[in-house]
Amino acid sequence: MKEKLLKPARKHSMWNFREHYIMLIPGIIFFLVFCYGPMYGLIIAFQDFYPLKGISGSSFVGLKHFKALFTNPFFLSVLRNTLIISLYKLLICFPAPILFCLALNEIKRTGFKKVVQSISYLPHFVSWVVVSGIFIEFLSPSRGPINIILQNLGFEPIFFIADPKYFRGVLVLTDMWKSIGWGSIVYLAAITNVDPALYEAAEIDGAGRIKQIIHVTLPAIMPIVTVMFIMESGKILNDSFQQVYNFLTPTTYEVGDVISTFVYRMGILNMQYSFTTAVDLFKNTISFILVVVTNAIARRTSDYGLW
Amino acid sequence: MKSKIRRTKEDWIVDIIVYLIAIIVAVSIILPFMQVITISMSPSSVVNRNGFHLIPTEFDFSGYTKIMSDDNFWHSYLNTIIRAVIGTAACVAITVLTAYPLSKKNLPHRKGIMLFIVFTMYFSGGMIPTYLLIKNLGLLNNFLVYILPCLVTGFALIITRNFFMTIPEALEESAKIDGASNFKILLRIYLPLATPVIATISLWYCVQHWNSWMDNMLYVTDNSLYVLQYLLQTILNSGQTPDMEQAVGIAVHTETMKMAALVLSLIPIVCLYPFLQKYFIKGMIVGSVKG
Predict the structure, then answer these.
(1) Closest Cα partner for B91 from B154, B147, B158, B155?
(2) Which of residues 31-90 of A touch B (CB under 8 A)?
(3) Same domain for A86 and A22?
């Protein structure tokens, strides 16, 4: 009875929620201006944009800049670098936290485990400016411990940061350094949900520790591993500007220049606004499709997934 | 009881591998920090000597005194503190204000508004249109450029909203009967109950502000508005070409000064670290479970 009385009132309820809508105003304005505003600006990818004329004054040129993309040798090399670096990261940086979390889970001394965990989270809170500063110092040919060991063994010191042969390796390793501890949290959370009785049952059945890891721990984190992997692979075109920019020097452009650093140099510094916007739009559209598809797959495989 | 059972060979092997992994990870994270700290407090004669620089042998804090007497450094440090304080407060306020209505299950058009927000997490206009927009808004070389364009993060908004949704509606209804407005309900009932999630997002925004430098690089050319991370970048990059690395002293900033600046920029993060660990992990777990 009471339900029926309330229902009609809820129907014309936008007015009832007026206070709520007022609260939403600042947030909505923010998203409109700073997120949707730049999307309107994407129009310049289809124009020969001149800042003085503005968007309304510049002439439309259709897909000219998109056609130019695929004949631009720099763009193709930059696209290749982006894909290769992302692939390396997916192959090496993705499994690392899983291995680390499996190891942590086997450590029974809680004190030691906590210390290792605390240390491993620290790099997550440090900016890429600082990380690059630390590693340029740490990998320096004259003072870096790795190079000192190499020298003592009779090898030539290697200038890791500036050598095209090692540059991608540096990117992958520093990314791993920064994310290994933090990345393991999700998996550790999944492990804590495992019923301890499962381990006891496995032990009674004669399973050793390796078998327990394979048959109890791994299946417990497998769903989230799958989801994370699917979602990570959707980000394959999203390079990390903050990381690459801080390590990149002209000597390593050929192997390390990625889409975002290319856009920054060509767009902001050389003011080729329309062309670089086309580059970004191309990248963002493909990456958006990839992320949506991979997220949909991830959601189907389990009830995880960001959205 | 179990520990009394004799350890098998397998136990030993697993333990050795597992501890080895943990130690390798921990040591490889600490070593680079140790080198930076050591160099920051060593005299340059030691820094240029061949050999490891992982534990300080001679102390000389001239790197710190020199960088601390640099006005630009303090100015950018202060800018960053102001930015972090005002920015975090503004971010949290707007995030909470937006999250609260969206946590109401029967808010009309809730789904549409959420879609409007979530879309921005996956698609953006990119660097150049954003730059042109900021320029047109007159925010170049303006302190507000550090605060306005990053007011709300979709992720923080979603975890706040999710937390609000777990607060029982009965509490709200009783307050409504007493005649409280929605704003009052948010302030008096929701906020006190949501302190853990507020702490999480505050620290989140705070670290984000502390570590941010791209907005400075893209939108600000005025020296007096530089933030710490960007100044640090220019300090670290000064005189950093392969051939000049040997010739310390030519560059304005010596290696010890660079490292001292780096260490000083890390101090607030280290001070906040116990809180960061506690609340970030909570947020991470809450956020990863379901949007």
Answers:
(1) B147
(2) 31, 33-42, 44, 51
(3) no
